[in-house]
Amino acid sequence: MSSSSITDPRSLRETVSTLSVPRLLARPVKQLSFWAAIVLPFMHLSLLWTGLDSASMTAAFVGLVALNICTLYLGHTHGQD
Questions:
Q1: pLDDT per residue as tens digits for the range 24-66
Q2: How is the chain split into domains, by residue range?
């Protein structure tokens, strides 16, 4: 009479082998993206407040907007699972 437990290496290997890495990482990536999409606009405001006088400030602003678009896309399904 044997029972499988989480500490059993064979059972753990079987569990991990049935799950793929992208599937394991999907939820944390969605969560992080969702919350980053909420926080990033505040960084936009700080850049706009100080002004986009130099090319580096403009590039930083455009980069943050692009990052915000990516986080919106990746995190838009968070909480719908």
A1: 788 888 999 999 999 999 999 989 999 999 999 999 999 999 9
A2: 25-81
Residue type, 50: T
CB atoms within 10 A of CB 46: 9
CA distance 51 to 47: 6
Q: No. of H helices and E strands in the chain?
A: 3, 0
33, 74 contact by CB (below 8 A): yes
Q: Which amino acid is at 76?
A: H
Could you tell me how far CA 47 lies from the centroid of its own chain? 23
Cβ burial 2-29 (10 Å sphere, 16+ → b, else e): eeeeeeeeeeeeeeeeeeeeeeeeeeee
The pTM score is 0.68
